[in-house]
Amino acid sequence: MRRIITLCTILLLFSIGHSKPNAKWWQSMSLYQIYPKSFKDSNGDGTGDLNGVKSQLNHLIRSHIKAFWLSPIYPSPMVDSGYDISDFLGIDETFGTMEDFEALVKAAHDASLKIILDFVPNHSSDQHEWFQKSLKSIEPYTDYYVWHKGKVLPNGTVTKPNNWVSVFGKSAWTWREERQAYYLHQFAEAQPDLNYENENVVRAMKDVLRFWLDKKVDGFRVDAIQHLCEDVRFLDEPLTGNSNPDDYGYTDKIYTKDQLHTYEIVQGWRQVLDEYQDKAMMMEVYANLTMTIKYYVYGAHFPFNFGLISDTNRDSKAADFKRVIDSWMLNMLVVDGPANWVAGNHDRSRLVTRYGLERAQAVTVLTLLLPGVAVTYNGEEIGMEDTWISWEDTKDPQGCIAGKEGYEKASRDPARTPFQWDNTISAGFSTNPNTWLPVNKNYVTLNLAAQKEVRNSYYSLYKAVSALRALPAVREGTLTTSLLGDDVLFFARFHEDSVYVTINFGNKEETVDLSPFIQPYNQSDIRLTVYYATINAHHLIGTVFKDIRALKIPASTTVIYI
Ligand code: NOJ
Fold first, then answer.
1. How do residues 36-72 score in pLDDT, each as one tens digit?
2. Which reaction does this enzyme catalyse, per its entry (predicted)?
3. Residues 274, 206 contacting (CB under 8 angstroms)
4. CB neighbours of 60 closer than 8 A, spacing ≥ 6?
5. From the CB of 561, is ligand 1 less than 6 Å away?
6. Total-model pTM
7. In this structure, which residue's CA is closest to atom 9 in ligand 1?
8. Which residues, in sequence order, are bridge partners of residue 100?
9. Is the CB of residue 83 below 6 angstroms from any atom belonging to ligand 1?
């Protein structure tokens, strides 16, 4: 006798937190993150640029993307790949000119795509004019950054103000002779923290927002928001028990993360956005759920939901995925804003590398079919994998600071290599055989052009499932989640139409009963069309199952029924 997995008792129905029929564009968008250095090189210098992005907007449109976010494109010494900005109001010449940027905004809007910029408020580059003037105590820049005279020991020696550690490792304080003081940098030494206790800084950064809003951008992804403000008593943070004072995990971040002042500053930015029409602000925040959700209340349109990055992995059980989904959705019952699902970005290992192919596909389906915003990091739609990078080729400061022995574990370069467009030179990314980071050697077979030709490719899955986002059930339907046994996660989206998804995370076939979810209930002969099934990436579009009380779900497979 076939074993029929009976319904797990936990069944949750979420009826709000999804988009309404007259939803704003940012409430239900498919958002695509472009890492400009690695997306498309138009001038053969081996680094991606704005004209390259413009030339590939069709790929976004064909992939049902509604908005794209550009990682930083501003002038930068590129210590942290553009997150060290030396002029908040310009375009780095590697990426093009202001005219190129304006042309890109126009092309995006002509194609009905929204364009979102990275706003990096926590720090600038140490090459920024503000820092150079602050170093020399030139007004009004003297207190633009977080300076401290240091702690005087009983023997008269001056030492670092406290035990704060930088995210990239080692002390967060660096001494400058010119100023006879330490400055704070929560990231690299070359990224001094701006001082939000200073009203001039608060004003200046609001003007940065206005500058780009006047250029018609549609919104901002706000970088590293949890680090924005610090407790100005500059006390030591409690120790965690980790014995290495150079490790970020050495201290418990009670004074350098999630400070209340940060939320007030965010509210001020929202007021600036509201001076314009229909602009959106989304926050990059790595914090606990409470401190993350709070951004919905304090001005953000939404904080990114990193649950599928931080809380699940290749070993997670179906219940772990359900927990990640339900905990976010429960919060959506009380906040005014869309849910959102992020499975990858330029700071984390590639989705396929983290989860393995079959699970990565399941996670892609989750991000695309759960309520709200779906976020895709460029390359994840074709299942790009991490690229091994030698120590000599390493660019990421987090890798460089870790040294030759530790860089492979710390570096984020493996997830940042050029997009694999086709099987020509440099994967069609550049005409130059030397690219800023090496192209993954697997590009010969793993590339967009090849995947377009194959019905069971990662991209075919991505495109087919993305197309479902136009259905009312996915756009604005309620969500039901349930466990069908230990290994099978089920969710459904209901409106006037329905979409059902079963994901078997286990390594053996399971037989499930969907009759409790499908009206009229408890009838065995309802026709369900399999829209897509991933069985080692084979798909079965068009197959019809008749008995919904005994549907077979192969091992490691996601099946979408409509
Ligand atoms: C978060 C960005 O995503 C990351 O790439 C960068 O290194 C830090 N913020 C510092 O700006």
1. 999 999 999 999 999 999 999 999 999 999 999 999 9
2. Hydrolysis of terminal, non-reducing (1->4)-linked alpha-D-glucose residues with release of alpha-D-glucose
3. no
4. 32, 68, 111, 113
5. no
6. 0.95
7. 224
8. none
9. yes
